[in-house]
């Protein structure tokens, strides 16, 4: 097997190849850099490539191995980060034109630092929708990231480059953020596994925020074991993130292999059974069949929950960007700017009602989890639409595409529940579509166990897309 | 008691925009109004839900951090 083909393995597989001497870290870094050079002009996932940094870290790892010292858990695994995470030496553009005038970051984001300390080779920053206010993966300044399974289609946003880098075989693991669905949507469109942990589980320290009350960060990867391995090394309190929990790390280790015997799993009905297209029906049906799920559960008032998340997002993001809206409104992506200006005009009681509704809705979910251990729902109604698509017909009604990509993800992140997006390839489907495996707060282990069964059964998988096919 | 109705977006823009200090190009106003129309419909529906008085807001704050 060539070194380039080795990059089609998952991160744990690459680390094993390095540990056993199948390849050096320098060879892995060189192959990853060459692959980015070949594929990124089409896929547009990377906005910055940190080749020198990857090479020098690889040399250090080779020295560790040559000295016979213990290797870190993700040694030589190529990774990259959505460009709202600080990377020392680069301005943290957060998908915007405005931010690239900022001075370069003087240090790395907490999660970048932790993944690199675990042996990961940082390859660069990844394309994203402007200021993360996006479900498409399109970007007015950097151009759209393109779906590796069909470059005429969307990656999904806002962590579009993260989905594209992983599905395109340019990184084994990509960091993303998820406020209303931005890890789960690209996972669905690009066919990657994604973990949106419990709100507060992983540190957002030294990343550029979108909506502090709703922002989560987490990994996209090509296997459940990669999600678990990266999640384990990234956990832990961080004073740099006021929303990061003080809980001690709860590493899952190999616990994702625990199976589902005894778990009470149900599919979500109600709101989550509306707006379906044949591909989301098929993906959920495949997952339910593989897991033997027949029960249906209802999370009441999910539509209002989605609306409340929408209002909080508008208002909080508008307040955060107010100085930039006053000084440089013409430099925003117009679609983002117009949403933000509208958000700056919302009556305060609307937002306060949304925040009170959030408490009520979280209580409903907690009640539901007394009867079920894990809930399933599609991540998106549709598989990846062609770039530039403006409308979608759901339940016979034509509506704007952008906001409706997130109809199933938004109510869940609203109350911070952990979710694994498991990419399902239904029989005969040309494109993947992910199912959300939703667990109670702080029970990422349950979501990973269920996703692992789907992976083991061959229902969920995240292959590298053939390039240039 | 009168039933709340979604506000007229143009009226909301006229009343609130000056207080924000955002120099909004007239060409952008139609799109801003469209966003406000969506938000207004959502808010009206949300506030029609009878939340108990016992329900407190759920923002993020932990004293001492």
Automatic annotation (TrEMBL), chain A:
One of its GO terms (molecular function) is catalytic activity. Gene3D superfamilies: Amidase signature (AS) domain. It comes from the Bacteria. Residues 139-152 have a biased composition (Basic and acidic residues). Pfam families: Amidase. InterPro entries: Amidase, Amidase_dom, AS_sf, Carboxybiuret_hydro_AtzE. Residues 138-163 are annotated as: Disordered. Residues 27-446 form the Amidase domain. SUPFAM superfamilies: Amidase signature (AS) enzymes. This is AtzE family amidohydrolase.
TrEMBL record, chain B:
It holds the Pfam family AtzG-like. InterPro entries: AtzG-like (IPR025148). It comes from the Bacteria. This is DUF4089 domain-containing protein.
């Amino acid at each position: 097997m060539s070194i380039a083909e080795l990059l089609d393995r998952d991160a744990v597989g690459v680390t094993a190849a390095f540990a056993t001497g199948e390849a050096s870290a320098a060879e892995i870094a060189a192959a990853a850099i060459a692959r980015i050079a070949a594929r990124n002009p089409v896929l547009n996932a990377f906005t910055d490539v940190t080749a020198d940094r990857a090479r020098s870290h690889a040399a250090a790892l080779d020295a560790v191995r040559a000295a016979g010292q213990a290797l870190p858990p993700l040694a030589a695994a190529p990774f990259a980060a959505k460009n709202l995470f600080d990377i020392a030496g680069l301005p943290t553009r957060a998908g915007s034109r405005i931010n690239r005038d900022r001075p370069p970051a003087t240090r790395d984001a907490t999660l970048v630092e932790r993944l690199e300390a675990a042996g990961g080779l940082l390859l660069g920053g990844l394309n994203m929708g402007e200021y993360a206010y996006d479900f498409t993966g399109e970007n007015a300044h950097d151009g759209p990231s393109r779906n590796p399974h069909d470059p005429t289609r969307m990656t999904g946003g806002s962590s579009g480059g993260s989905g594209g880098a992983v599905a395109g075989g340019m990184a084994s693991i990509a960091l993303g953020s998820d406020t209303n669905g931005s890890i789960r949507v690209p996972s669905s469109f690009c066919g990657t596994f994604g973990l949106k942990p419990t709100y507060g589980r992983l540190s957002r320290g030294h990343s550029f925020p979108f909506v502090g009350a709703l922002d989560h960060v987490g990994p996209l990867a090509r296997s459940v074991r990669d999600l678990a391995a990266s999640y384990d090394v990234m956990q832990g309190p961080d004073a740099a993130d006021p929303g990061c929990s003080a809980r001690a790390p709860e590493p899952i280790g190999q616990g994702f292999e625990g199976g589902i015997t005894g778990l009470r799993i149900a599919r979500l009905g109600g709101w989550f059974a509306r707006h379906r297209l044949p591909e989301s029906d098929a993906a959920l049906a495949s997952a339910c069949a593989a897991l033997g799920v027949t029960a249906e559960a209802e999370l009441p008032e999910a539509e209002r929950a989605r609306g409340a998340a929408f209002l909080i997002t508008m208002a909080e993001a508008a307040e955060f960007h107010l100085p930039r809206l006053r000084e440089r409104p013409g430099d925003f992506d117009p679609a983002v700017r117009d949403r933000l200006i509208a958000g700056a005009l919302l009556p305060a009681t609307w937002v306060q009602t949304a925040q009170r509704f959030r408490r009520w809705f979280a209580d409903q979910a907690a009640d539901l989890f007394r009867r079920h251990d894990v809930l399933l729902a599609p991540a998106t109604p549709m598989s990846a639409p062609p770039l530039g698509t403006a409308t979608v017909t759901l339940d016979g009604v034509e509506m704007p595409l952008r906001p409706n990509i997130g109809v199933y993800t938004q109510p869940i992140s609203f109350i911070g529940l952990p979710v694994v997006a498991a990419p399902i390839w239904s029989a005969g489907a040309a494109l993947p579509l992910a199912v959300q495996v939703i667990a109670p707060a702080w029970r990422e282990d349950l979501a990973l166990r269920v996703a692992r069964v789907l992976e083991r059964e061959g229902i969920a998988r995240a292959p590298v897309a053939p390039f240039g096919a | 008691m009168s039933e709340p109705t979604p506000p007229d977006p143009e009226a909301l823009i006229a009343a609130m925009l000056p207080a924000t200090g955002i120099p909004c190009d007239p060409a952008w106003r139609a799109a801003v109004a469209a966003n406000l129309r969506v938000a207004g419909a959502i808010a009206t529906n949300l506030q029609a839900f009878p939340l108990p008085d016992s329900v407190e807001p759920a923002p993020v704050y932990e004293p001492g951090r």
